[in-house]
Amino acid sequence: MAASLDDDFELNNQDYYSLLNVRKEATLEELKASYRRLCMLYHPDKHRNPELKGQAEKLFNQVRQAYEVLTDAHSRAIYDIFGKKGLEVEGWEVVERKRTPAEIREEYERLQREREERRLHQRTNPKGIISVGVDATDLFDRYDEDFEEMPGGGFPHIEISKMHISQSIEAPLTNSDTAVLSGSLSTQNGEGQGSINVTLRRVTSARGWGEVEFEAGDILGPLFGVKVFRNITSRCFVTGQCGVQFSPRGVRRTCSLIAARQLDQHTMGYLKWRGGRSSAMTTSLVRDTDSSHFSLSLQLGVPNSYLMMSYAFKFQDEDKTRVRGSVKTGWFGTVIEYGAERKISRHSVMSATVSVGVPQGVTLKLKLERASQTYLFPVHLTDQLLPSAVFYATVGPLLVYMAVHRLIVLPYTQAQKKHASVFVDRCVLSSACLKTSLLLVFYFIHPPPPPSPPPLSPLSVRRIMEAEESKMGLIILNAWYGKFVSDVSQKKEKARVVDVTVPLQCLVKDSKLILTEASKGGLPGFYDPCVGEEKSLKILYQFRGVMHQVISADTEPLRIPKQCECIITHTESEWPSSGSF
Length: 581
Hints:
single chain; 17-stranded mixed β-barrel; mitochondrion outer membrane; DNAJC11-like_beta-barrel; mitochondrion; phosphoprotein; membrane
């Protein structure tokens, strides 16, 4: 656990500029040059040792992530203000241009609040349905005599005939137990009813779960039920449900059983039996592919039996448009439905369906799905099969959608894309003090493990050394990074340093070593042995056959060789040894 937290600290505290060894004002060409060089050094394919290959792959991915962020002006601006934490917040792609850090920080806080709301939403998983039934039969089934006798009778009478509202939320109790609370209210023709339901669900294993429910408030009386789900095989499952309802007319028992099997990659077969007063046996076949959805159902039962077939075609566009149709025929008549569904925003889907049947008449069903909320508006137009009702039910919603899409939706989406394309071009550097303080506290409580050797193959290191030796170039003899003890009064304190000879040698290019003005603890192969304390880098190197020594502060830029360096004549005993820290 502590090791994983330490890894998270290193990843979150990683400085992309230090990792690529570039200055904060680095150009795109400088970033590309540094990225290509580091990829050649730390590419996983250059390692045969599994342990070294895993370390190299981890560092290679960090380098690639840093390059992708810093080469994108959008992401780089956010990173310069908030660091990696800011890149994790969703919604930056639709934020309009801001010119000051205060405005960007305000947008960041707003996006953080939205993120917390989404987390709460995912945890409770609220679901709701609102259905409003509209009776508009007077638009087509008008009786002129009745309208003439009523004041204002020249206008058709449209009313809300029924309404239904239901809502449910989930409350996780443990990793395997969940409580679900739901309720519903409905009214029709002046009469209303409501109920509340409490369900306790437990996941018994990876193959099944069970739940117990209690419902009260319905006019039929309280209900107790049990439901069980079980995977028989990887392609077959069974669901069983039974319940007892205590109504004023006696005890009513209900039960049902569903068996399903996957017939092929896209086809499922279902067999359902329902017992009780309305007993029935239903067989269904469902085939769902990327381009279509087909279902066929046959029910034999009392008092209703029917045959239903439906087909939906899926367009391969970004709006996920669907066109569907269905036919249902049984003892109580025949119904034909056709309609379309389309995504109108990121979280919203709208659909319209026309239902034509005997003896039901003509009904227009409008549906809007917004996240986990569903809004239904069934509009009953006529009790008869009138061509005019079918025509207006088909053409009317289409014309309204085209007008709304062209006048409202399309301009809004274009404005959002325009704002995203002209995002911040100037950002002022600021530090997240609270975040840094918390990370430092954690780092002192859980000190990181000693650094592992940089994931470089011996062949690559030897090749770099031989190339520099052949031209009497820059050779790093010893390099240490950390806190050094030089004062006589502090001799009892041990130096805390790390050997970085090999990582520095690999950063040598054309007999030159150039380090930018950033903390050297973020360089590949480096490690911070004393967080929060002043550190320095001490290098003993050879150039043109002559030894030199240089000491550089942690955030100080460094460029060697230097013309003003002195020749070192002392021994290596003055350098920190592995036993001194």
